[in-house]
Amino acid sequence: MTDILDISRPFAAYDRPADAETERAVTRFLNAEARTLDREAYQEWLDHFVDEDIHYWMPDMETRNRSDARGPYRHGDSAYFDDTLSELKVRVARFVEPSAWADNPATRHLHLISNIEVYETGDPSLLAVCSVFTNVRNRNETDQDVIHGRREDVLRRHGEGFRLARRRILIVQNVLLSKNLNTFL
Fold it and tell me: Taxonomically, which superkingdom (predicted)?
């Protein structure tokens, strides 16, 4: 496995920004992904945006002193998501089950993606992509959640486009106050 795909390791400093055409193509990819997630088209998201060897990780954040070598999160500790493709498929299938009463009526989603940085890696088939996001979710008349964070993605070139091979989601909230986490970030 290439080091960049190892979810337990944060991105190293990349000093080779991708060319402008690649950056525009990645930005279009991320914007299309956000629109797909806004529509709750989760099967379409799996089919068109996610690669077979995906590792989708959103650790639980812990407040620790700066001097604590463990840092605020570590792979293997508590996580909201620590999923492969098979686990993501189970999550997606759950949305159409009659028992998914918490998702009926539907949640209204808005994914805002910005600060996109695209870097070449040592593997010409992989790109390192950093971005920030805001996810706004509204349900019924008064339920609203806002989640902010950073993403470290690894995109794999796939035909004329890309597929998501790794996503590391680092939220800024220490405690997620949402009633549920019925979204992908």
Answer: Bacteria
User: Looking at the domain assignment, is residue 71 inside a domain?
Assistant: no
pLDDT value at position 2? 56
Tally of domains in the chain: 1
Q: How does 116-147 read in b/e, with b if 16+ C-beta sit within 10 Å?
A: bebbbbeeeebbbbbbbbebbbebeeeeebeb
Any residues with CB less than 8 A from the CB of 30 and at least 6 apart, and which? Answer: 113, 116, 129, 131
Return the CATH number at 50: 3.10.450.50
Distance CA 43, CA 169 (A): 20
Q: 73, 61 in Cβ contact below 8 A? A: yes
Give the tokens for residue 168. Answer: 């590391």
Q: How many residues does the chain have?
A: 185
User: For residue 153, what are the domain limits?
Assistant: 15-61+77-98+107-171
What per-residue confidence (pLDDT) applies to 88?
97
User: Is 0.85 topped by the overall pTM?
Assistant: yes
